[in-house]
From TrEMBL, chain A:
<feature type="transmembrane region" description="Helical">
    <location>
        <begin position="136"/>
        <end position="156"/>
    </location>
</feature>
<feature type="transmembrane region" description="Helical">
    <location>
        <begin position="54"/>
        <end position="77"/>
    </location>
</feature>
<protein>
    <submittedName>
        <fullName>Quinol:cytochrome C oxidoreductase</fullName>
    </submittedName>
</protein>
<keyword id="KW-0472">Membrane</keyword>
<keyword id="KW-0812">Transmembrane</keyword>
<feature type="transmembrane region" description="Helical">
    <location>
        <begin position="16"/>
        <end position="34"/>
    </location>
</feature>
<feature type="transmembrane region" description="Helical">
    <location>
        <begin position="301"/>
        <end position="320"/>
    </location>
</feature>
<feature type="transmembrane region" description="Helical">
    <location>
        <begin position="362"/>
        <end position="380"/>
    </location>
</feature>
<feature type="transmembrane region" description="Helical">
    <location>
        <begin position="217"/>
        <end position="239"/>
    </location>
</feature>
UniProtKB/TrEMBL annotation, chain B:
<keyword id="KW-1133">Transmembrane helix</keyword>
<feature type="transmembrane region" description="Helical">
    <location>
        <begin position="97"/>
        <end position="119"/>
    </location>
</feature>
<dbReference type="Pfam" id="PF11821">
    <property type="entry name" value="ActD"/>
</dbReference>
<keyword id="KW-0812">Transmembrane</keyword>
<dbReference type="InterPro" id="IPR021776">
    <property type="entry name" value="ActD"/>
</dbReference>
<feature type="transmembrane region" description="Helical">
    <location>
        <begin position="56"/>
        <end position="77"/>
    </location>
</feature>
<protein>
    <submittedName>
        <fullName>DUF3341 domain-containing protein</fullName>
    </submittedName>
</protein>
<keyword id="KW-0472">Membrane</keyword>
Length: 404, 192
């Protein structure tokens, strides 16, 4: 079966326009915010950190999905496996952007008092708590884990894709590559467990409030990333379907993705609540400081919006079977979920550095648009390089008759 | 609860059963049910059964569970027996969420199981007529419901033409009953 994706001029122009907006925002931000007061400077870097981390996480999910499905020998993904492959193969680019941003923050950013307001552990001074955490929270550890993560994600993301393409020219019914991918998937799950599910959210996200910690923070980050990463795959599948590609994908496959969006919204809520309730119940000042700013302070709007968008909307709209099989509802909900989890990451990162001086304004929106542009540009470029159906895959027949 | 007349056909192959089911649907005979020793994929679609509404019942049971939990706990802690737990407000919703969640799941699960049993007429101790002793072993049993105007011979001939290995006419109680198998002897007398 031949299923090539030619990038439509409209998509290319849209992505380039979005990148243009992003670059313009970055230049304007650099001119206006970097010359401003401490809060403006902090805002400049914190927003870049927020978007680059968010996009790294949601693209990295695609590699995880491939690995998990390969290991479970699932066939439901094969019909559109090229989509997570294309997203996952570009995760390292967002990772590199995040790495550059975090390194700039660690080495090139201090406010007028000589304090790093985004990563306070860089300049611990005489703070006993920060000095106590120095064994883990220090630039060497940070760079070590971050570089290893980005490199390994890049390696595995591209490896899965190149094996998948190599399968097309392999002899018919040859299972050699299939088992190679199977073994690599197991290795990647360990890598993913040690990066996305533990160290990376600690270092990149949780350490903006270095005095505070939560033991399930990384798991909660993963849930947030996973549900928006699934929504991202859904958006691409719907888009390609509308372009007339992906003939093997039926409503049954959409239903599967819809179930992931639904179920992991509930999973996210479970972790969100587990973290909240224990802190609320124990009422220890060290811990409640996290929710004081968010629930009662200047972020309460985002705090409650977060709950409504990421829990109430998915559970009510996606619960019924027909709504998971309807192109409009799943597209709408995918966009809502991605936006909702973007807000979730916003309220994880911003209160630490910015306190009450937060904005969602031209700079935040422009940066977000820029990253969306980069994502569309990279993923569509990768998608157009190979057939959209993994010909010769031993799971091809099973995926064609798949019933959700 | 009524004793009715059934034409029963036994098939020994799925590949014969599926065409037979669609022939029955086209013929105008009233299909009572198909009994198989194992779940046969796609048979519900072939028989034209409509999608179950069990999950809507589940949603309603779940809502009942949620409101029972929230209603009962909030009545206890805000009206009936106020207790100060570590300075928390009397109406402390976060602390009740786990219980509420559990009761929602419990109500939905138990309610759905009972509803499922009711819809499928299965329950411990409940009896149902068995059309063929091998329907849970190695044969697929298709049953047609006949009335006083249908010709038994035509129905049997029709079932034979669809590839049935065995056919019979049986008088049987169509739904479930609770109690003894005693009725079975009545059937045997009727069927004789």
């Amino acid at each position: 079966m031949n299923d090539r994706f030619e990038i439509p001029a409209r998509l290319r122009n849209t992505s380039l326009a979005l990148i243009g907006v992003g670059v313009l925002t970055l230049i304007m931000g650099a001119v206006m915010l970097l010359s401003g007061n401490d809060m403006d400077k902090t805002r400049f870097w914190a927003v870049l950190l927020h978007d680059s981390v968010f996009f790294t996480f949601i693209t990295g999910v695609s590699i995880f999905v491939q690995a998990a499905v390969s290991l479970a020998q699932g066939a439901w993904l094969t019909a559109y496996r090229r989509v997570p492959e294309a997203i996952g193969a570009n995760a390292w680019i967002f990772g590199t952007i995040a790495l550059i941003v975090t390194l700039c923050i660690i080495f090139g950013f201090k406010d007028s008092h000589g304090v790093n307001t985004i990563y306070p552990w860089v300049t611990p001074g005489t703070d006993k708590i920060l000095l106590g955490k120095k064994a883990f929270l220090n630039p060497t550890m940070f760079i070590g884990f971050s570089v290893a993560t980005v490199a390994l994600w890049g390696f595995f993301g591209n490896k899965f894709r190149s094996y998948s393409i190599a399968q097309e020219s392999a002899p018919k019914n040859d299972t050699k590559i299939y088992w190679k991918v199977f073994r690599l998937s197991g290795v990647f799950l360990i890598v993913y467990g040690l990066s996305q599910m533990s160290t990376i959210p600690w270092l990149w996200v949780m350490s903006v409030q270095a005095h505070w910690y939560s033991t399930l923070f990384s798991w909660y980050n993963f849930a947030s990333a996973f549900v928006s990463g699934m929504s991202l795959i859904m958006l691409w599948v719907v888009y390609l379907k509308n372009q007339g590609n992906l003939q093997l994908v039926t409503k049954e496959h959409m239903h599967d993705l819809g179930k992931f969006m639904f179920a992991f919204s509930i999973f996210w809520t479970y972790l969100w609540f587990a973290q909240y309730m224990l802190i609320w119940y124990a009422n220890i000042p060290d811990e409640t400081v996290y929710f004081k700013l968010r629930q009662h302070g200047p972020y309460s709007v985002i705090f409650y919006a977060n709950f409504i968008i990421n829990f109430c909307m998915p559970i009510l709209i996606l619960m019924a079977r027909p709504s998971k099989r309807n192109y409009f509802t799943v597209t709408f909900m995918a966009m809502v979920i991605i936006f909702g989890h973007w807000l979730d990451f916003f309220q994880m990162i911003m209160p630490g550095p910015l306190g009450e001086h937060w904005h969602i304004n031209w700079y935040e929106i422009g940066t977000f648009m820029g990253f969306v542009g980069i994502l569309i540009f990279l993923v569509s470029r990768t998608l157009s390089k190979s057939s959209l159906i993994q010909n010769n895959s031993i799971l091809l027949k099973e995926t064609a008759v798949h019933i959700a | 609860m009524a004793i009715k007349k059934f034409a029963v056909a036994a098939y020994d192959d799925e590949d014969v059963l599926f065409p037979a089911v669609s022939k029955v649907r086209r013929s105008g005979y009233k299909m009572h049910d198909v009994y198989t020793p194992f779940p046969v994929h796609g048979l519900d679609v072939a028989m034209g059964l409509k999608e179950t509404d069990l999950h809507i019942a589940g949603f309603i049971y779940g809502l009942c569970g949620t409101s029972t939990a929230v209603g009962f706990i909030s009545w206890i802690y805000t009206i009936d027996w106020k207790i100060n737990y570590g300075g928390k407000p009397h109406f402390s919703l976060p602390a009740w969420i786990p219980i509420t969640f559990e009761l929602t799941v419990l109500f939905a699960a138990v309610g759905m199981v009972l509803t499922f049993c009711y819809l499928n007429q299965i329950m411990p101790g409940v009896k149902k007529h068995v059309f063929h002793p091998r329907q849970s072993d190695d044969l697929f049993i298709l049953t047609l419901e006949l009335n006083n105007h249908t010709s038994e011979a035509d129905a049997i001939a029709f079932l034979k033409s669809t590839g049935a290995k065995e056919t019979s006419i049986q008088m049987a109680e169509e739904s479930w009953w609770y109690g003894r198998w005693d009725k079975k002897e009545e059937y045997e007398a009727l069927n004789a």
